[in-house]
Structures are given as C-alpha cells and as structure tokens.
Amino acid sequence: MKKLVLLATFAATMFTACNSCGGEQQPVLVIETETDSLYMVNDSTIGDLQTFVFEGLMPMDGGKAGNTQLTIESVSLNDDGTYTITTTYMDENMQPKKMNDSGETVVLIGMPNDSTAVIYELVSYGNNQKMHMLMNSDTTLTRLDSKMQPISKNRSHRLVHKK
C-alpha cells in the first residue's frame, strides 16, 4: 500500500513537472509587498526641494581649469531649478581667484548626436550668460561649448555627483 501511495505521488509530481516543462509557461504572479508600497506613499521627500552637489575640475574660458562646486536645487535632478557655482582658479600672476555665480537651471533633453542626452542649461541671473552641462551615464557632468561639444576631452575635467 505504501508503495502504491509513493508511486501515485511520484507520478503526480512528474506529470506536473512535465506539463510545466513541455507545455505553455504559466504566468508567474508577483505580489508587491506591503512595505514597498507603504514606503512610497509615506516618503516625506516627494515634492520637496532637493539639493544635488557636484565637485571637480571644470574647464573655464581661456583654456584653464578650476576647482568647481556646482549646487543644483530642484524637486528632482530632472526638473528645472536653481544653481550656485563656485570656481577657484589661479590667475596669470599665480594668485588664487574665486568666481561665484548663481541662476536658473533649465533641463533640456536631446542634442544633435544624441536625442536622449540630458543637458543642464545654467542661466546666470547677473549677465544672462548660459553654460551647458551634459549629464553622463556615470552621473558626472561635462561642460559643453556653444556647439554642444565637450570643451575638454580630459576625463578629469568632469564634475562628480557628491550628494
């Protein structure tokens, strides 16, 4: 009797296994856990002003590079917002100089060779100067010229996302 029960159980298991292997695949039901959905609903930072800081060596006009800190404030990094930028560099007399600027950040999507590129257009409050920064896939920013080409090919001339 035990052998008959074991044989019946084995046959039922094999039949089920063969049906799932050779036949149509049954859809798998994925249930989102309660904690995941509660986290999204109770996330207190949704809709709040966020601060994103980038630091590094940035090429400047005139071929020099300066230590730069760029701070962008917006609801998310892909939304328009404001910016402040501070660049420290050495002048022609090898004296340290500091340049500060602030203004509006406009997020642009697409450029001539890449329709999915994310460009941050930094529009200065003071003199309406515009600076374009390309967001790279490694969350670094590269400064672009007026033709939307990188000003420097040097990989060390990128601003790295810090927080």
Sheet of most strands: 8 strands, antiparallel, barrel
Number of individual domains = 2
CATH topology of the largest domain: Lipocalin
Given the helix and strand composition, which structural class is it? alpha+beta
Distance between the termini: 69 Å
Percentage of helical residues? 10-25%
Report strand order across the widest sheet.
Answer: 1-2-3-4-5-6-7-8
Helix-strand pattern, N to C? HHEEEEEEEE
Q: In percent terms, what proportion of residues is strand? A: 35-45%
CATH class of the largest domain: Mainly Beta
Shape: globular
Uncertain residue ranges: 1-20, 29-40
Number of strands: 8
> Could you say what the CATH architecture of the largest domain is?
Beta Barrel
Secondary-structure blueprint:
Layout: H1 2-22, H2 34-41, E1 50-59, E2 65-74, E3 81-90, E4 96-111, E5 114-124, E6 130-135, E7 140-144, E8 159-161
Antiparallel strand pairs: 1-2, 1-8, 2-3, 3-4, 4-5, 5-6, 6-7, 7-8
